[in-house]
Design goal:
Layout: H1 5-21, H2 24-37, H3 42-54, H4 58-71, H5 76-92, H6 96-116, H7 121-133, H8 137-150, H9 155-167
Helix pairs in contact: 1-2, 1-3, 2-3, 3-4, 4-5, 5-6, 6-7, 7-8, 8-9
């Protein structure tokens, strides 16, 4: 099916609206229509990933965010959801090696977001927490310190930073 870029975007927008409304089967239908029209459009992969993310099917969300990011590596919201998908997958994983891999992938995505968007406090907080709980004190202190510069009133972050500095 050959369609105009505007038509493809309209289907994707409708799919996103259905996701927000909780109409997942309708969202799936609209997003897949758009993808059939233009498989090289990163927004199609991101929309499909957003659908799986909303349904908490994180392995499929991860796969689709990665496909979209290969086509458009600058999409910060997709990276945030990808990092969160990896983190959530790690927390529920039983296999320790796979769990560690998911944490590492999450951390990698948060670091990319932090580097591309230095005002994104959430990226510094999430990376700082992962480093803190993995007892990588030096990196925890760096990320938590940057987070506190952006959000000075966050008591738990101040505690984690203090603990990290003490451990160093």
């Amino acid at each position: 099916i050959k369609a105009s870029p505007k038509e493809v975007k309209n289907y994707l927008s409708l799919g996103q609206a259905y996701i927000k409304a909780g109409e997942m089967s309708k969202a799936d239908l609209e997003i897949r229509k758009a993808q059939k029209m233009d498989e090289k459009l990163p927004d199609g992969w991101f929309a499909l990933a957003d659908l799986y993310y909303a349904q908490k099917v994180y392995p499929l969300a991860i796969a689709n965010y990665n496909k979209g990011l290969k086509l458009d590596p600058t999409n910060i919201p997709a990276r945030v959801n990808l990092a969160t998908s990896y983190y959530t997958s790690a927390r529920s994983e039983e296999d320790n090696d796979l769990k560690q891999n998911y944490y590492n992938e999450s951390l990698n995505q948060w670091e990319i977001v932090a580097n591309k968007d230095p005002k994104n406090a959430n990226a510094f907080w999430e990376a700082g927490k992962i480093y803190y709980f993995s007892e990588t004190w030096d990196n925890a202190a760096i990320y938590l310190n940057k987070y506190i510069q952006l959000r000075p009133d966050h008591a738990l972050a101040r505690y984690y930073l203090t603990e990290s500095l003490y451990k160093i």
